Each structure stands twice: as structure tokens, then as C-alpha cells.
UniProtKB/TrEMBL annotation:
Family under the similarity heading: Belongs to the RecF family.
Protein name, as recorded: DNA replication and repair protein RecF
Function recorded in the entry: The RecF protein is involved in DNA metabolism; it is required for DNA replication and normal SOS inducibility. RecF binds preferentially to single-stranded, linear DNA. It also seems to bind ATP.
Organism the protein comes from: Amazonocrinis nigriterrae CENA67
Record localization: Cytoplasm
NCBIfam families given in the database record: recf (TIGR00611)
Span of domain RecF/RecN/SMC N-terminal: 2-351
HAMAP family: RecF
Cited PROSITE patterns: RECF_1 (PS00617), RECF_2 (PS00618)
GO CC term, one of those recorded: cytoplasm
GO MF terms held by the record: ATP binding; single-stranded DNA binding
Listed transmembrane segments: none
């Protein structure tokens, strides 16, 4: 797929800026705090309706304005699409495809696919499990847009159930926990049904991604180090049928019932799951140098690109935010060789010296200064 144009209005530090992409590779060069990452973030939002910087909508809208708009034209094998995302300071969003506004955000997802790779991604290895869950969810949204809806349903039930638990925290009456649990039963059933959908999809995605990532990792590290990725749900997933997983979910909830009423929060479910990254059976977080951790993240990102390409049958965009400078020359080449002209790539940098002349000659170069 090929992003032809991008039009930003009152987005971040951009007042109004149209960009036309004229090559498979675009290098955005400029000093710090000029708007390079902001532009990549706009593309990321069109692809996932999420920002990996975890920005709230009121931070995305230009200071002093109420509305921001991101508009793009995209060429796919199926034809040209026209995407518009409108963001408001009050958090209300609207999406339109080819000029028609869409009721469900899920119908907007999956039109533009993109993999984002920035220095923040090191948190995938070093950070807590929520980083890996977010990463996996963002990937899944692109692989099967209906997942966005499933996740939303789960989070909705989770919030309701948490609110109920919080309200009744420590209020165990003379009859013990029984009355509380009768009321909770409604939420439990919904949590188990929606949670099972989340768990099974996450597990399936990791099973597909793991061998691809392991192959890239072996390739880049050029050694016998073996990368293992495993989805580790806190509800046992040995069973194959959704009904069996739901049953296991409910059993686990019963086991944690007392702890849940003391803690006033839901302790069972995919919001507490982990994606285990290990190298030669050693958890990656405790393992190795920063360079080795970067190799792992690079392998994950290349695997994402490949998996999305396999599933959607078209190469996604690659958004590289300041990562080249962090890789050694060998890994830089590994990445650049893989991209070649296979993936349309937007790259930010503060100086062009990281690129060789062949790259510079074949790339579109945009100078970014103060939101222009
Ligand atoms: P670096 O090289 O440091 O990564 P960058 O060019 O990637 O820089 P961006 O993150 O794209 O920088 O842009 C940061 C600039 O955007 C900052 O000056 C910040 O104040 C400004 N900015 C961010 N959000 C808004 C907003 N909502 N309204 C106005 N300006 C904003
Ligand atoms: Mg930046």
C-alpha cells in the first residue's frame, strides 16, 4: 500500500500542512521539537486509532484549537481510499472513509496498515507487561479490526466490574461474601465470555508471530541464540474450545474471590496477562546488553511487518522514529536492506549523515521546521 498524501490541520504543532509522498522512502529531517514525530504519529493514528505515546486527544489538538483533522489518500491494490480522522479536545472522535462518515471505528481500521518503530519500543523488552499487552493489542487491531470491538467490550465489562468491587470493598456482611457474589455473577459471566475472546486471539497472534520473530532474531544476531515468545494468560488456555476456556475463567474467578473483594479490583483476566520474551530460556528483561535488547525489538518489528503483509496481502507502511541512530552499522544495514523498496517508509532523523548516498539519492527528503 502506498500513502500518497497527508493533510494535517490543527494537529499538534501543525497549523495546516499538506504533504505529498513522492518516493517509497521519505526522510523527515529537522532539529528537535519541530514536528517530525508528530507527523509520524498522525499516520499511526490513521492506522490504529492509537498513539504509542499514549497521548490524550486534547494533547493531539493544536494548542488553543478545538478540533484537529488528519486526512490522507492511500493507494491499495483494491483502489484509492480517502481517510479522515477528526479529533476533538473533548475526546469525541469521528472517522470517514471516502467522504462517508462511519458509525463504527472498526470499519476505519485495517484500511491503512503501519508498523511504528521508535526508541520507546525498547520498553517492550525492559518495561512492564502492560507495554507488551498494548503492543500486541495494537498489532491485533490491524490483523483483525474486529478485535478493536472485542477489546472495547472486555474493557467495558472490566470497568463496570471494577466499579462494583470498589464500591463493596471490605464490606463483607454477616452472611459473608455470598450476597456480593450473586450480584457479581452477571459481570463474571460477561467478563469470562469477552475475556476468552481476547485471550484466544492474542494467543493465536503470538503463535503466528513467534516463528517469524525467531527467524529474524537468528538472522540478525547471527548466532545460536534462540528467541522464544509465548503468550502467558493467567487463565489456563490448554483447552481448545471457547466454552472450556470460559469455564476455566469462571473457576479462576471463584478461586480469587476473597482476594478480589479485599483488593476491590478484578484480579483475573487478560488485563493482567503477560507476553513472555526469552532468549535461550532466559527472560529477555534480565538478559544481555542494551544492544541485545535492541536486536530483539528489531526482530519483533520486522516480524510485525512480515506478519501484517502476510495477513493483509499488502506491505504495510513502516514508520521509523529516530531508531537508526540507536542501531550499530550492521543492524542499520540489516534494517535498511530489508526495507529496500518493499515497504513504504517514513524515517525521522536530526541529521542526514546516518544515510549513505544511495539512500539519499533514492529518498524524498522533507525538512521539518516549527510545524511546517
Ligand atoms: P525530536 O527530534 O526531539 O524527536 P520532533 O521533531 O520529533 O523532535 P515532535 O515530537 O514531532 O518533535 O514535536 C514536538 C513539538 O510539538 C514540541 O515543540 C511541542 O511543544 C509541540 N506540540 C506537541 N503537541 C502540541 C499541541 N497540541 N499544540 C501545539 N504544539 C504541540
Ligand atoms: Mg521526535
Amino acid at each position: 500500500m502506498y500513502l500518497k498524501t497527508l493533510h494535517l490541520r490543527q494537529f499538534r504543532n501543525y497549523e495546516e500542512q499538506k504533504v505529498e509522498f513522492t518516493a517509497a522512502k521519505t526522510i523527515l529531517v529537522g532539529n528537535n521539537a519541530q514536528g517530525k514525530s508528530n507527523l509520524l504519529e498522525a499516520v499511526e493514528l490513521l492506522a490504529t486509532l492509537r498513539s504509542h505515546r499514549m497521548a490524550r486527544d486534547r494533547d493531539l489538538v493544536k494548542e488553543g484549537e478545538a478540533i484537529a483533522q488528519i486526512h490522507a489518500t492511500l493507494e491499495r491494490q483494491t483502489g484509492i481510499s480517502d481517510l479522515t480522522l477528526t479529533l476533538r479536545r473533548n475526546g469525541r472522535r469521528s472517522v470517514a472513509l471516502n467522504g462517508e462518515s462511519l458509525r463504527r471505528q472498526m470499519d476505519f481500521l485495517g484500511v491503512l496498515n503501519a508498523v511504528q518503530f521508535s526508541s520507546l519500543d525498547l520498553e517492550l523488552v525492559r518495561g512492564g507487561p502492560e507495554n507488551r499487552r498494548n503492543w500486541l493489542d495494537t498489532l491485533l487491531i490491524q490483523l483483525e479490526p474486529v478485535y478493536a470491538h472485542i477489546l472495547q467490550q472486555y474493557n467495558h465489562v472490566l470497568r463496570q466490574r471494577n466499579a462494583f468491587l470498589k464500591k463493596h470493598q471490605d464490606s463483607v456482611g454477616a452472611q459473608g461474601f455470598a450476597p456480593l457474589h450473586q450480584e457479581l455473577a452477571v459481570w463474571d459471566a460477561q467478563l469470562a465470555t469477552t475475556g476468552t475472546r481476547v485471550i484466544r486471539r492474542r494467543d493465536r497472534a503470538i503463535q503466528r508471530l513467534a516463528p517469524i520473530a525467531a527467524a529474524w532474531h537468528a538472522n540478525i544476531s547471527g548466532s545460536t541464540e534462540v528467541l522464544q515468545i509465548k503468550y502467558a494468560p493467567n487463565v489456563p488456555l490448554e483447552q481448545n474450545q471457547p466454552e472450556e476456556v470460559q469455564q476455566a475463567f469462571l473457576t479462576k474467578i471463584q478461586q480469587r474471590a476473597v482476594a478480589e473483594s479485599y483488593r476491590g479490583t478484578t484480579l483475573v483476566g487478560p488485563h493482567r496477562d503477560e507476553v513472555e520474551l526469552a532468549i535461550n530460556q532466559t527472560p529477555a528483561r534480565q538478559y544481555g546488553s542494551q544492544g541485545q535488547q535492541r536486536t530483539l525489538v528489531l526482530a519483533l518489528k520486522l516480524a510485525e511487518l512480515q506478519l501484517i503483509e502476510e495477513v493483509v496481502k499488502e506491505p504495510p507502511l513502516l514508520l521509523l522514529d529516530d531508531v537508526l541512530a540507536e542501531l550499530d552499522p550492521y543492524r542499520q544495514n540489516q534494517l535498511l536492506d530489508t526495507i529496500q523498496d518493499r515497504f513504504q517508509t517514513l524515517i525521522t532523523t536530526t541529521h542526514l549523515s546516518s544515510f549513505d548516498s544511495q539512500w539519499l539519492n533514492s529518498s524524498q527528503i522533507l525538512f521539518v521546521k516549527a510545524g511546517e
